[in-house]
Specification:
The complex is a heterodimer of chains A (398) and B (364). In chain A, the strands form 3 sheets. Chain A has a 4-stranded antiparallel beta sheet. In chain A, strands 4-5 form a two-stranded antiparallel ribbon. Chain A has a two-stranded antiparallel sheet with strand order 6-7. Chain A is globular, with a radius of gyration of 30 Å. Chain A is mainly alpha-helical and 398 residues long. In chain A, 68% of the residues lie in helices and 6% in strands. Chain B has 16 helices and no strands. With 364 residues, chain B is mostly helical. The longest helix of chain B has 31 residues. The chains are: A mainly alpha (398), B mainly alpha (364). At the A-B interface, helix 2, helix 4, helix 5, helix 12 and helix 13 of A face helix 3, helix 9, helix 10, helix 14 and helix 16 of B.
Chain lengths: 398, 364
């Protein structure tokens, strides 16, 4: 009976479902429709653009990269002059972005971790001060902060003649900060090499120590030995290289300091603004990460007989870092993206150089496309790193 | 038994003075061990060294209503830079005698926002009030009807412009962000791909590149003779940018929904649209209110970036005051004032989000 029933139902069904009721076909049609709409919009915009470009006789293509730039850039890591090409100018800008982001990231992590820990302090005063810092810095636009610091550097600090000297060999004035740096000496190159060698030795040492620990259970003081190697090897090289102590001290020339290392007020303002702003966000991330490890974990580790440094190293940090690292990288990426605000205070970062290029060549589309491409490369490589890290540290569940 | 109860009456011991009250609080919160005591003393010394001079600079030695030249002799802060230029900073190039109009528009906005704070008013009448309010605000800004003198949008500036960019940016970006999030969760590969590309592309680039695009490239996209005003272009860039971030937040909420919710909706016979509208989105959007507010806060702060494409928002009007030779060199005071305005805006938003989070986590 039941069998016959189903048969009759199937017979009652129409032979073919009309395509507008079939979910599969419907979804294909919807997708085709969406694609067509996007395609049409793209076609419309592109055809308009081509027409406009032709009418205003703006050149297209990236040929301008090889032309002479004929503008100067205030700060450059590589040699650059107005006679060089736009391509080289943009490279200078990219390097400037990278250097300010790199130094900014280092200071941000240190300051952010410090404030995040201070926020959790049992000392009421410390904790409240950190809370006020976090709230105030998060609630003021970073661009405004950049303008503020730039104004402080530019207006409040004296001219080079009356430069402040808070420490020996350091001068603060409205042309920037001048430091004394060691006089160039061949030993410095070897010291750098020694530092690199130290890093490699430490990496190998860690691997060996972990293997031995797994095999025999004997711990090895990796951390203190690493510090000794990192400091000791370059020092040893320095001593072997004749222990050069001569310093290149900045001296007041007619208008500005000569010698030493002078950091421009634009760079200082950008660095300070970005670090102070981003550190507030990093502090919140660090606080949340530490709070995410329950107290039972600490107590369990201690009851196993681990000493406090080992509790931190083996139990707390691995768990806290799993929570901290993803939002931390996105904050650091934000710092890199915010460094594009340099254009507002005149630091020649990539966006600023690209902006000048656009103004001179009139090739806005290529210029903005370059800006977007460079930042996309930064962020895509960061998210690639993130995926790798997440895979590596994902919680292995039974 | 009674005797026993009466017999246990003993003199109540007061807790030791050193562990309760003010002294106890100080002992437990500031001096609970050697390191903390040391920190407290250092910080108190530091505060003693910095706060009184700052206070002196800001309030005692400061001048409030003078000319720029008189300011140069003052040893403290020169707040005259604000008081003398307040109307330009707040309203930009809006015709001087008509500035009551943006003021009234902002007042309406604040009243509406204040009423909307309370969730018990989140009903239809409030929606109508918002629509009317927005219309009235637009009318006040633009003029041209009911005998109001028309004001070109190129003359809009200052605080009303900042509020306009952020407010419309957020209201338009929100639905767009929700649609993008739904698209990213969609089962149709083509739609999903487009949404993923859009979201990742926008989130990967800084806002400033979009603003450049809006100000220099966008005119090239339009056919000959068609022009769109600069404020609107910047507004579109802000909307497109914010929408991508909102989409990511909403996606988080959608992923937080259990499969059971979808299955229950399906078993009730609801189609995709009704499932989303009645079952999924009301729950998903509710759990992402706190992160959404933080996106809104950062969008509010990000409107200050329009300075770079030379729109006269709050920050730009301040800068143009500072480029006047009479007021040159008083950037600190002016920027501190603007910072306080931004801080008040963002702080009230984040406080409100915290309050809302508490209310929602209590369960209705």
């Amino acid at each position: 009976m039941p069998l016959a029933n189903t048969d009759s139902i199937e017979k009652n069904l129409p032979e073919k479902v009309p395509f507008w009721l079939d979910p599969k076909k419907r979804s294909i049609i919807a997708q085709l429709f969406v694609f067509c709409m996007v395609g049409l919009l793209g076609y419309y915009l592109i055809s308009n653009t081509l027409e406009n470009l032709e009418r205003q006789s703006i050149a297209t293509g990236f040929g301008f990269l090889h032309k002479e730039s004929s503008f100067e850039i205030g700060e450059s890591l590589i040699s650059y002059s107005a006679a060089d090409s736009y391509g080289r100018a943009l490279l200078v800008g990219t390097l400037n972005t990278l250097i300010v982001s790199f130094i900014g990231i280092i200071f941000t992590i240190i300051l952010g971790a410090f404030i995040g820990v201070a926020r959790l302090s049992t000392n009421w005063l410390v904790s409240k001060l950190a809370a006020v810092y976090i709230e105030v810095m998060q609630d003021i636009p970073v661009l405004l902060q950049l303008f503020f610091w730039y104004a402080i550097f530019y207006e409040t600090l004296p001219s080079p003649r009356q430069a402040l000297s808070p420490a020996k060999g350091v001068f603060l004035c409205n042309r920037g900060v001048a430091f004394a740096i060691p006089e160039a000496h061949p030993a410095h190159v070897y010291m750098g090499l020694a530092f690199l060698a130290g890093c490699i030795i430490i990496y190998l040492l860690r691997r060996w120590a972990r293997k031995r620990h797994d095999r025999t259970g004997k711990p090895f003081p990796v951390f203190s030995v690493s510090i000794c190697i990192l400091v000791g090897l370059p020092l040893l090289t320095w001593w072997a290289g004749g222990a050069p102590t001569k310093m290149n001290v900045p001296k007041l020339a007619v208008f500005n300091f000569q010698g030493g290392l002078t950091v421009s007020p634009e760079f200082m303002a950008l660095l300070l603004g970005l670090v102070l702003y981003t550190a507030a966000f990093v502090a919140e991330v660090v606080r949340a990460g530490i709070q995410s490890v329950s107290k039972g974990q600490t107590e369990a580790a201690m009851s196993l007989g681990l000493r406090p440094p080992l509790v931190l190293n083996l139990v707390i940090l691995p768990q806290a870092l799993r929570v901290i690292i993803p939002p931390l990288t996105s904050q650091l990426l934000n710092l890199t993206k915010n460094s594009s605000l340099a254009v507002a205070i005149g630091y020649p970062d990539f966006v600023s150089v690209a902006n000048t290029t656009i103004n001179q060549t009139g090739q806005a589309i290529e210029g903005v496309a370059l800006i977007m491409a460079v930042y996309l490369i930064f962020s895509l490589s960061t998210s690639a790193f993130m995926n790798w890290y997440n895979k590596k540290t994902v919680l292995v569940e039974r | 038994m009674e005797e026993l109860v009466q017999g246990t009456q003993t003199e109540e011991l007061k807790p030791p003075v050193a562990s309760v009250g003010f002294i106890g609080w100080i002992k437990y919160n500031l001096f609970n061990d050697v390191f903390n005591s040391f920190l407290t003393i250092i910080i108190l010394y530091f505060l003693w060294k910095t706060v009184p001079p700052l206070f002196r600079w800001a309030f005692i030695d400061s001048v409030w209503h003078t000319t720029g030249t008189a300011c140069r002799d003052a040893t403290g802060a020169c707040w005259s830079v604000i008081s003398a230029n307040l109307r330009f900073i707040l309203f930009g190039f809006f015709p001087y005698e008509l500035q009551w109009r943006p003021l009234l528009a902002m007042f309406i906005l604040f009243v509406l926002l204040f009423i909307s704070r309370d969730r018990k008013y989140w009903k239809k009448p409030l929606g109508y009030a918002w629509i009317t309010g927005l219309f009235v605000m637009g009318l006040l800004m633009k003029g041209g009807l009911f005998g109001l003198t028309p004001v070109e949008s190129t003359q809009w500036g200052g605080l009303p412009l900042t509020l306009l960019l952020s407010f419309f940016g957020l209201t338009a970006a929100y639905p767009l962000g929700v649609v993008l999030a739904l698209g990213r969760q969609s089962k149709m590969p083509a739609v999903k791909l487009l949404c993923v590309i859009y979201i990742e592309l926008i989130r990967g680039v800084p806002l400033i590149s979009l603003l450049f695009m809006a100000s220099i490239i966008f005119p090239l996209f339009l056919p000959e003779g068609v022009t769109i005003n600069k404020i609107l272009r910047a507004q579109v860039a802000i909307i497109l940018f914010t929408a991508a971030y909102i989409a990511e937040v909403v996606r988080g909420g959608l992923q937080g929904m259990t499969l059971g919710q979808y299955e229950a909706a399906e078993s009730l016979g609801l189609n995709y649209y009704l499932t989303m509208r009645l079952i999924i989105l009301p729950q998903a959007l509710k759990i992402v209110i706190p992160p959404t507010v933080s996106i809104l806060i950062s969008a509010f702060k990000d409107t200050s970036l329009v300075v770079i494409i030379a729109l006269f928002d709050l920050l730009k009007t301040t800068q143009s005051v500072l480029s006047n030779p009479e007021w040159m060199g008083f950037s600190r005071e002016a920027y501190i004032f603007i910072a306080i305005l931004y801080f008040l805006g963002c702080f009230s938003m984040s406080n409100y989000s915290r309050k809302l989070e508490k209310e929602l986590s209590r369960g209705d």
